[in-house]
């Protein structure tokens, strides 16, 4: 049940979709991040999803930054 | 052990080492940078039990709820600021988030920036003190039913119950009365293509939904004030214990 100002046809239209890029949620130094896969072990940061505002100030976790992460111990979101 | 297994193990060790390296590298950066106020942003659609198509910007409750628990449990965190810019979304998820915020024992302040529409309204009023930016809007409208309707009386009953839950939450957590809220909800003169009311900044305060007009500065000031007020209580409790 939705209570929103957006018309349902806008929310649920799935036109021109080309499969979602593979995103995973990980934690680096206690900073929860959503990263997106580029190649086997190369990812870039999509979003910081922490509630700690200080986490957003760290340069190495800015969205778009590249991270190397072996596909081990990860969970798909 | 076969050669293949050995190779596999070596690979695992390498990736473990890399993971450790990543974890170790950044630690120096983090010391002493923890904030005593945590902030949650509620943006776009509030996502419910169904993942919405990727072009929707969504707030997922499975991200928010563990964070809210962590905020409640972590002793270093003294207050919570919730920023809202949402178009509404799933009723259950929205009410779940609102209930969580309203039952947190630490001081909470919400700030509506941009928009806090539909199910964003209960979330906006769920805190100890709420703010709205001068230019921000809140759209209050009736709940709509989409899709197949099998039994009209049953569907009507169902939708009415949902609306009641929302109205009850808003009226118990803000100064607006149930009648006034429903009047805003079914207003026919405010919107051209729908029924309901669009409240801009000050109007939301006048109607008693939001406590005050203000921005980030005021919101943080209020949060610090609430934290200071709660502190002696906590100290007293500890003495009693």
Could you list some keywords that capture this structure?
heterodimer, A: 77 residues, mainly beta, 5-stranded antiparallel beta sheet, 1 helix, B: 241 residues, alpha/beta, 2-enoyl-CoA Hydratase, Chain A, domain 1, 2 domains, 6-stranded parallel beta sheet, two-stranded antiparallel sheet, 9 helices, globular
Assign the structural class of chain B, choosing from mainly alpha, mainly beta, alpha/beta, alpha+beta, or little secondary structure. Answer: alpha/beta
In order across it, which strands form the biggest sheet of chain A? 5-4-3-2-6
Helix/strand order of chain A, N-terminal first: EHEEEEE
Average pLDDT score of chain A = 80
Point out poorly predicted stretches of chain B.
26-32
* Tally of individual domains of chain A: 1
**C-alpha termini separation of chain B:** 60 Å
Low-confidence stretches of chain A: none
CATH superfamily of the largest domain in chain B: 2-enoyl-CoA Hydratase, Chain A, domain 1
Output the helix-strand order of chain B: HHEEHEHEHEEHHEHEH
For the largest beta-sheet of chain B, the strand count, sense and barrel status come to: 6 strands, parallel
Oligomerization state: heterodimer
What share of the residues of chain A lie within helices? under 10%
Beta content of chain A comes to 35-45%
Kindly estimate the percentage of residues of chain B that lie in beta strands according to DSSP. Answer: 15-25%
Mean pLDDT of chain B: 86
Largest interface: A-B, 31 and 49 residues
């Amino acid at each position: 049940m939705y209570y929103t100002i957006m018309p349902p046809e806008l929310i649920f239209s799935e036109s021109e979709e080309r499969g979602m890029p593979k995103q995973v949620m990980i934690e680096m130094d206690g900073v929860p991040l959503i990263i997106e896969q580029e190649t086997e072990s190369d990812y870039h940061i999509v979003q910081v999803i922490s509630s700690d505002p200080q986490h957003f100030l760290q340069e190495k976790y800015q969205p778009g930054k590249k991270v190397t992460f072996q596909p081990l111990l990860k969970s798909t979101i | 052990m076969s050669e293949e297994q050995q190779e596999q193990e070596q690979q695992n060790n390498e990736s473990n080492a890399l993971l450790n390296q990543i974890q170790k590298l950044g630690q120096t950066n983090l010391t002493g940078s923890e904030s005593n106020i945590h902030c949650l942003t509620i943006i776009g659609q509030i996502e419910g039990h169904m993942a919405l198509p990727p072009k929707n910007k969504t707030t997922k409750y499975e991200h928010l709820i563990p964070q809210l628990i962590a905020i409640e449990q972590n002793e270093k965190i003294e207050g919570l600021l919730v920023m809202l810019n949402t178009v509404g979304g799933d009723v259950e998820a929205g009410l779940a988030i609102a209930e969580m915020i309203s039952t947190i024992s630490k001081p909470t302040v919400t700030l509506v920036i941009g928009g806090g529409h539909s199910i964003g309204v209960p979330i906006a009023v769920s805190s100890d003190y709420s703010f709205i930016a001068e230019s921000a809007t809140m759209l209050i409208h009736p709940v709509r039913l989409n899709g197949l309707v099998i039994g009209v009386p049953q569907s009507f009953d169902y939708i009415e119950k949902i609306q009641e839950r929302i109205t009850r939450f808003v009226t118990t957590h803000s100064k607006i009365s149930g009648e006034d809220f429903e009047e805003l909800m079914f207003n026919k003169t405010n919107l051209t293509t729908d029924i309901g009311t669009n409240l801009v900044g000050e109007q939301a305060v006048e109607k008693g939904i939001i406590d005050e007009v203000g921005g980030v500065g005021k919101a943080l000031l209020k949060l610090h004030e609430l934290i200071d007020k709660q502190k002696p209580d906590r100290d007293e409790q500890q003495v009693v214990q």
